[in-house]
Amino acid sequence: MNQCGMLSGLLRYRCTAEIFQRCGGGWMKPSSRALSSSTGLKVPVRLSSSSSYMKEMYLAWQGDHNSVHESWDTYFRNIHGSRPSGEASERRPSTLLQGRALSHSLDTTQKVVEDHLAVHSLIRAYQIRGHHVAQLDPLGILEADLDSFVPSDLITTIDKLGFYGLNESDLDRSFQLPSTTFIGGQESMLPLREIIHRLEISYCGHVGVEFMFINNVEQCQWIRQKFESPGVMQFTKAEKRTLLARLIRSTRFEDFLARKWSSEKRFGLEGCEVLIPALKTIIDKSSAGGIDSVIMGMPHRGRLNVLANVIRKDLNQIFCQFDPNLEAADEGSGDVKYHLGMYHERINRETDKNITLSLMANPSHLEAVDPVVQGKTKAEQFYRGDRAGKKVMSILMHGDAAFAGQGVVYETFHLSELPSYTTHGTIHVVVNNQIGFTTDPRVARSSPYPTDVARVVNAPIFHVNADDPEAVMYVCLVAAEWRSVFNKDVVIDLVCYRRFGHNEMDEPIFTQPLMYKQIRQQEHVLKKYSRKLIAEGAVTLQEFEEEIAKYDKICEEAYTSSKDEKILHIRHWLDSPWPEFFTSTGEPQSMSCPPTGLDEEVLQHIGRTASSVPLQDFKVHPGLSRILRSRADLVTSRQLDWALGEYMAFGSLLKDGVHVRLSGQDVERGTFSHRHHVLHHQEVDKQTCVPMNHLWPNQAPYTVCNSSLSEYGVLGFELGFAMANPNALILWEAQFGDFHNTAQCIIDQFISSGQAKWVRNNGIVLLLPHGMEGMGPEHSSARPERFLQMSNDDPDHIPLNQQNLTCFISDGQLHDSNWIMVNCTTPANYCHVLRRQILLPFRKPLIIFTPKSLLRHPEARSSFDDLTEGTTFRRLIADDGLANRCPGDVKRIIFCTGKVFYDLTKERKLHHMENDVIIIRLEQISPFPFDLVRVELDKYPNAELVWCQEEHKNMGYYDYVRPRFLAVVANRKPIWYVGRDPAAAPATGNKSTHINELKRFMETAFNLSTFHGRNI
Hints:
Layout: H1 3-12, H2 15-19, E1 21-23, E2 26-28, H3 32-39, H4 50-63, H5 70-79, H6 95-129, E3 174-176, E4 189-191, H7 192-203, E5 207-210, H8 217-228, H9 237-260, H10 275-288, E6 293-297, H11 303-309, H12 315-319, E7 327-328, E8 342-348, E9 353-359, H13 369-383, E10 392-399, H14 400-405, H15 407-413, E11 426-432, E12 461-465, H16 469-486, E13 490-495, H17 513-521, H18 525-536, H19 541-562, E14 567-568, H20 600-610, H21 622-636, E15 639-640, H22 642-655, E16 659-664, E17 679-680, E18 688-689, E19 702-706, H23 712-723, E20 728-733, H24 744-751, H25 754-758, E21 765-769, H26 784-789, H27 810-816, E22 820-822, H28 827-839, E23 846-850, E24 862-863, E25 876-877, E26 892-896, H29 900-910, E27 917-922, E28 924-926, H30 930-939, E29 944-952, H31 958-968, E30 975-980, H32 991-1005
Parallel strand pairs: 6-9, 6-10, 7-14, 10-11, 11-13, 12-13, 16-19, 16-20, 20-21, 21-23, 22-23, 26-27, 26-29, 29-30
Antiparallel strand pairs: 1-2, 3-4, 5-12, 8-9, 15-24, 17-18, 22-28, 25-27
């Protein structure tokens, strides 16, 4: 047996992997104990060198052939033609000859082993760091990793062979290939020269692969096979022709827009025209694998091209958007054309299968759409029973600067494998322009690549030169297959350039002169690729020109027909249509909401389930047992606390087939330990019970899930989830209401204005714990003033029925509002407003300022009578106390909302002023209940009007309610303010200060001489 053969046997027994341990891309010798264990030797010796170790092993073998591994037994036998073990001692050579032969053989063997291990290290170095020297930049002026340094362990020149103890003479020696590479194909040995050549083709060409950080052997091997196997990146003539046709459409679309609207912003795709065939390749491959719904999100760059050539939006509908005289047919402000979304069902021509494509509308907050797309994808998978993501998938497109710089990207990645949030793999496509607006990437990010954030979830990253269309297509095929096989995220980094500035009116040479001098000389990718295919004979020049003329004609015809469009129908651009929910005109079926009350038997049944453990032999915590007994006592007395009121709302909707999903930080138990919707077995790990899913035999599912510690990402996710189905109650709860401030982008860009911009109805519910209880500035205020400032109801206009000016249409007012805000003070009203959210014939976001101390307040209780059939949500709760007997004698009406009501009633009782002061609660703050306020004011004609709030004067509700109260009274009387003085922080962190503030404005509220002569 020759030395390579013997070494092959040795390597098959993992000698390389286990005798030598990786250290910074190289190898080091382990301890003798590890060495002995890994090789199976029975002689544990401590070594100072491999030579002395082999001598001792040889001596051990002489005594007993079975004391060493069989590969070494074979080797020692071949050194001197040894017979089987029993004959070894009979035919030993002389000691002197034996020593010389052994010394020479061991030196030779040691060299062979070290050289083979060096080659294995070399292969691994290319797998780990080959992407650093890949030819990724089409311009050839920047390094994609922002560093021109060449790793010392990559053989880019012959002199670097010395790093591994090799020299030029070794280039033609053959070496055994390890099992962790596929560069040999069917060959197990290759010359070193060929090994290096094949590694350069696999890892240092126009594709750079980052994957060796993945801690899964199977996944790493899968990627190695896809990129190392000889000849993998090859396409048929038909495939190349299809690729060329798609590249023509992508390029000529941008050229057409530039010719027709040269002075218009369109955020074209020039410089990354390959994005269109890339997306179509991903969709084709996914469709062939069974996907029939793809939900996409992207920034503005290239959106019009994607709409035209991927989604297949009618070109005349796109072109008419450029007409400045187009009149809006739908209500709302609308949005610029490169922010709009689209939903389209069509046949995939490559697979002849139906496929639905949805591109989500997105604001200029480039990555804000990421979690929204994920939420909508999850919802579609959920409602279709697609538990493994084999039917519905998501594709997210990104810009390089935004992908590296915006935190929501990280938050979205961290949702990717959470059980209640995973979409079973997203394909991320980064359009890497190698520049921000005017910012060089070298001062815009700290990581080598913009895609490094994806490493946190072990997502493979495929960098590819966007001027090599075939390399791009191959990477897209591998990415689509990866997502199908492993159900994990994957990133494609299209390293390209931006031919023009940030927009078509921008001059980029001001800040990037060298880059844009090169770009102006850069040949278009379509020209380069068409020339390549013509040279190969895959297409003729005539066929190429005919394909261009064919698409140009399509564009011209669409342009001509677009001039007939006089009205802009934003509804044609819906990304989430609800065809069964609306009429054919897109309007709700009616404007009225039925009563939200419940049957007594339903209330009792839900109450019993909420206060019990549905599973047998399920051991709960003793403290929780007491809570459940307390609930049972409430049910027996026909009473509700806050948690039980929520249970009634959810349970009754589940009975009616409405899916309920509650998500947020610690929502399963509830931040304030009041909810307990998930019970945990105290002796069996991971065994839980959700009583809400044991209410009815054929009920809808209830999903309650603790989220990651994210507000921006999770709220965006739940917003997307709510877009998929109007007949579902989707709720997000902040741990404290204050924490929604880190999700403000979602609130501003999607929730408050989504319908106005994109005709996007959404019924998401935000539960924001709110109340001033001395818990400091970050655990007190949900900032109601921010929500109210963005409400679109007119403070000077009281909406009345035109046929009967005294009849106020409350549901119509809801329909015209952009969202609804409530601050409930009773569990029954909380239950009603949640049920109303589904029973309304339209969908609006609902913001609920929920309590903290009222969760267990003895007076914050409701009777079952407040929930029985015929009852409904009370927008305003009037005072039914003693003062009602003589309304003319009432001196003061205090209007308030939320928890402060209980402080006011306590103070009023303390001062024995029940006959003098009326306290009225606004439960629905926006849209403002003008009609009910008018009724109350007319009832007490002699009373002065006071607004009391616990928030500071420059916060809370005062600035919102004051002009509306004045509109009701037609400015005939003032409205006085009672509350805390203006402040910068929303609350004090000192308990004593908090109590003094409360005491001060409580005294003011009931001092009837306080406001005389002073109109606030």
